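Supplementary Note 3. Input sequence used for the single-chain structure prediction.
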Amino acid sequence: MRKILIPTDFSKNAENATKLGVELFKYEICEIYIMHAYAAEVYQLDPLMEPHFLKSLQQRISKMVTTKLYGIEEEIKKISPNPKHKISSIAKFGLLLDETRDYADLEDVDLIIMGTRVKTGDKKITFGSNTLQVIKYVKCPVLAVPESYHGLHPQNILFSTDFLLPFKRRELKLICSIAKSYAARLHFLYISNSKELSSRQKENKNFIESFTSGIDVKFDRVPGKDITETVNAYVQDKHIDLLVMTNARHSYLENILYTSSIEKIGLKIQIPFLVLQNLQRI
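The predicted structure, written as discrete structure tokens, is reproduced below.
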């Protein structure tokens, strides 16, 4: 059974991410948790509020949030009735990052689904601060869904990797499960000017080959040094509809996430982006 956590701020962006997540895993037995953390909504009104007023306000907002979450539950059950899915909602008095991390650990969540924005004109992925913080600090895969993207039925999945890090079985299983559900081709893209793999790279690649038995898998090596340009071109050329990368120490993705232009990734795509985690965090 797959456990999926979907934090929501009740925006159209979050609504779209929720619907896409429910649709993507319609063939699997899932527990889907829809969560809203509302501490910021309480404190932004008056951070110096006296305790008894604060408690009263907290109770009112909690009731309002619970009602909204119930409405989302009912809407999902109405538009996507699925006996394989158990949907529940959680209202938490706390900050979104803290509550997401704690709940993901508590329930051993397999995947977090959140929304992203795409800038009009240049079509670059722009993570909202909440999505970005979750990707950086929660030890769980995150599926970032562009606000304009609807109905994910992947036929071509791209996993950009250098084969240097060992792959986690649980996260590979997630990708393979999606590929199997939609009979999708799984592309492993290695961007390098060197044709030869090291012993470690060969070992990791061999593990992938054995783990993905029965799936349509394609391994490609593309020469070059500009990962961003190469990935963009590959996405367009191969009609990729789901991009996968791993967030690891000193990786291409980590370098982007921790740069000064932290909210902008140069990947000019409008497809869902699955970020796997290979980081040990405190």
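Residues 156-278 form a domain with the Rossmann fold fold (CATH 3.40.50.620). The chain is about 40% helix and 25% strand.
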